[in-house]
Hints:
two-stranded antiparallel sheet; alpha/beta; eight-stranded mixed beta sheet; glycosyltransferase; Glucosyl-3-phosphoglycerate synthase; EC 2.4.1.266; Nucleotide-diphossugar_trans; 14 helices; glycosyltransferase activity
Amino acid sequence: MVDFHQNGNIATLHNLRTQSLDEMTYELETFAQSRKISLILPCLYSELETEAMPIIVCELSRVSYLHRIIIGLDRANEEQFRNAKKFFKDLDQNHVVIWNDSPRMKALEHRLKDVGLGPVEPGKGKNVWSSIGYLMACEDSAIMAIHDCDILTYTNELLARLVYPVANPNFPYQVAKGYYARVGQNKLNGRVTRLLVSPLLIALKRVIGDRDYIDYLRSFRYPLSGEFAMRTSILPDLRIPSDWGLEIGVLSEAWRNLAPKAVCQVEIADAYDHKHQELSAGVAEAGLNRMSVDICKAIFRKLAADGTVFTSNVFRTLKATYYRSALDLLDAYYADAQMNGLEIDRHGEERTIELFAENIMRAGQFFLSNPHETPFIPTWSRVHSADPAFMRDMHSAVAKDIDEYQ
């Protein structure tokens, strides 16, 4: 999307098609000489068997400015861990596969639980958190990037554009959030962003009034993207949510810890397609059904922490306002899709909006019933304070797993 619009809250860095990938890569190689860049890939073993991962590994093998690649591997047994190490052997960079389900890693997890700091539940948040801890233990990187492992349209230009804003020493940005148009298979995708987050933020502004945090979230063109980069100096105090609220949670942490001028969003791809979650309308703990509740709770928690008072009446009003806002936006999405020759299932989209409206109430009721819920994994600063040897021991456990399971 070639434009140069700025929203006034955070910087938007566009792809104006005026600099080649080779030129950007040369600059990143220069930056990396004094500011090492590492990449974290949180993945399930099942993702190694998809069409996307071979493409991603092939593209990453051509990247010259990366110092280290950390692959956080979930849901893998011993044989699958061995297979994963073979799968990534073609990466030219220094790389490591962290077997999160290994006996050594499980023992470390129990060690944290003994002092009340263990991760709440398995998932992407815990995977990212463990990988960040390993990266911090290495003590040699200035820049960290993360992206998903199911991107069917992946090219290494996505990574270059993602890390450039925080790698450039002349820029003030400490966090960069990737954005792109969610179009694939001749459809307008990105249902949770389009049909939940955007109309929910509009409704929140109408119901509870102006809030800087709401304006901040509304500034992001794709707040639920799994691609972001940051300077490692902010990692020790970063609180990682353990549920589906990871992406909103990271943006909220950037809001809490940094000035708006230190945060930007950057256009990283012309086309982006990946695995699509099922709606799972009849299963509360699966798919977009679960995701929508967790995202709502993440937003409600942050607003409450900033002083917003929520009641049952507020949530009922919010549900009605959201529903009307979502239907109004759907008219715009429908026209946009039609004009660009894309398919859109109007009936299916309205059913999704109805489910999300109910889930706003579910999330609100859960929020009111569990005021002391703390779904965040403890910061690495707190872990280090409670157990100063933990990161060193985790680094050692990963190395021993690599050596033992050849």
